[in-house]
Amino acid sequence: MSVALNLKSLIDKDMGDLLAKYALSAIKVSEEDVLLKASNFSIRVFADRDGVSMVYFDTAHRPIKGYNIFLFLMNKRRESLTFSSAKPEKSTYSKFIEDELVSLIRHLKSAGQDILEGSKDWITAYTWPSVSAPESLVKLMI
Amino acid sequence: MPDSIYNANPQQLWPDYNQPWLSNAISRGDNFLMATPPTFDTLNVNTGISVLTRPNPVTGQMELSGFGREYLMMRQAGYSYQNGVMMK
After folding, report:
1. Distance between CA atoms of residues A74 and B60, nearest Å
2. What is the ipTM metric for this complex?
3. Which residues of chain A have a CB within 8 Å of the CB of B66?
4. How far apart are CA B56 and CA A103, in angstroms?
């Protein structure tokens, strides 16, 4: 999908503090796909017409398995999350995506700092199917 | 659907384009070939979440995906899924 979006720029702007705090390298895969790389995990942040997703990949494990971070936080740590009562206007695609991204970053700060610190304990509580890492991204992750 | 239309006003994509197109096809009695089985246990290979719904990170509510909206509209019009096809 070709969109009027530069997800990497939004991540640099809205997530710079977390990138610095947890030594995450942001690698642009495409206009709507960015990999946040740490020493033993990577987080794929990507956008489509439905919104933004963040999938954590445990790069210390073979095969590399992915876990949807928001699915986990919403179901297992919901009491630590803050939501808006109303959906923001989708005035432009970029604004829509930034609203979703900012919310996901807020959830990571309030309920996912252990994940960013490199803990893997939370994965044992992840009860949904994992996803496979796309071949094109595996080279960037390891 | 050209991305330029979506980018200009994503909120209007469904009411201005997808919904009228689907409504016209339904009114003709068309069948729909489905590339993806429209079931809750069919997972998006990228997100690991159902192809029909998604959790909205802004509101914390489950919502229909774009594909889910289309499937619901077809179901409400009396269509059902059989062997890769939505048909009446």
Report:
1. 7
2. 0.90
3. 49-50
4. 9
